[in-house]
Amino acid sequence: xxxxxxxxxxxxxxxxxxxxxxxxxxxxxxxxxxxxxxxxxxxxxxxxxxxxxxxxxxxxxxxxxxxxxxxxxxxxxxxxxxxxxxxxxxxxxxxxxxxxxxxxxxxxxxxxxxxxxxxxxxxxxxxxxxxxxxxxxxxxxxxxxxxxxxxxxxxxxxxxxxxxxxxxxxxxxxxxxxxxxxxxxxxxxxxxxxxxxxxxxxxxxxxxxxxxxxxxxxxxxxxxxxxxxxxxxxxxx
Length: 237
Ligand SMILES: [Cu+2]
Description:
The protein has helices at residues 4-19, 35-38, 180-186, and strands at 21-30, 47-52, 63-65, 67-69, 72-74, 77-81, 85-87, 99-100, 107-108, 119-121, 126-131, 139-145, 150-152, 158-164, 167-174, 188-192, 197-205.
């Protein structure tokens, strides 16, 4: 005879399989030259995702907003599933633009005025580096991935993915100040069980990182921005 305890335990397992499990962990950044990392231990901005081995998962329709305010894109780094529609509202009193000519997906919204927005759909996976054609210091990154199982680290480095179906996955990590070789070494196969998967601490070294220089959308250096009375300075760096 099956005991009530056994039945309820089976139900818990069934529920976990149906709803998926939690994949959690934290990221620590090492060998950094950034004062926000060295002094404040700010480990935010790292993207992590799980690609299922085998059949491609269904991707949810998704939207993402990256604002332009005080001459900054915010958030600076985002992760989203392939097909995401990204909204770039301009909350500044000046014109902005959003473009990318890096691998990932080239696009160009053209210049657009204060209080308006432009939307771009990202139909292919890849790391999309976004810039503004008139302000060289404005940049953002969208990590577009073929999976719904993704997370960004908080300032403490913690991350969490909910409702991950048990199975075999490839864990991938992207961090702006890590080399490709460093990121490749962090890629690994993991098994998610109904009980979830605690990944522990993932240490990402920023050693060897060199900032990627970028030009404007025409492939030229940025002309100096206007200064002096009447010029909009935006956020102070
Ligand atoms: Cu701009």
